[in-house]
Give the backbone structure.
Amino acid sequence: MPSSAWRGSISFGLVTIPIRLYPAARPSRVSLHLLHSVCKTRLRQPLYCPHCERIVERSEVVKGYEEKDGSYVLIDPEEIKKIAPESSRVMDILSFANQAEIDPLFFDSSYFIVAEEEGRKAYQLLLKTLEDSKRVGISKVTMRQREYTAFIRPYDHGLVLHTMYFANEIREAPGYGKNENVKLRPQEIKLAEQLVGSLAARFDLRNYHDEFQERLKELIEAKRKGKEIAVEPQARRAPVIDMMAALKKSLQASGARAKKPVRATAHHRHRAAS
């Protein structure tokens, strides 16, 4: 059984719901380790003190904040516990908002909210209310020595929580959004809309996968058997010069793909060569 990431309660008004948070998604990747090329032993990164010129034990490690002059303010774990805000134990729902008002760019991490036995009725009441009103609850929660703004929303017959980035954490990119001088012709817009329509499909998460990770697993398996991987050369794409011509060709290609029977995906064609 997976361990919970946070345990406490949700509070809205005078209603309190004891809950636990479980990570809703986590990366799944093949890990490659650093090895010594001579003996093929996995390398480790020791905790080395350059002043004492020796490896230190975990029991000797403390945390500190570095000042501008290079000195440190030492922080004891018990001191951190003493300053933990109320949101480290209770998530007060501060307000309710329309979900459309919250851009996915603000999302950080996602968690399933699971009610403790004594809070199941109140949990169901909050879930039903949010579903009917099409709103989400805005709250605060403290985890891993950080207080997050979070929103609580219905998902697949339950509640999920998304931690959010703060406004000062949203970055800027040079030139982003500055397209006032770009002029689009009506014909280009119409063809682009037709292309989007020809590629439109109902979203199903199962249709998407990490092709690189699958190829990496195939490579590892082939290496185990002393084989080589046969890789098809990738076609080079020419730069777009004539937008109208590119759109028309794209429409023709999408129409041709729609008429053909479903073929195996690319990663199935990359097999280990004998």
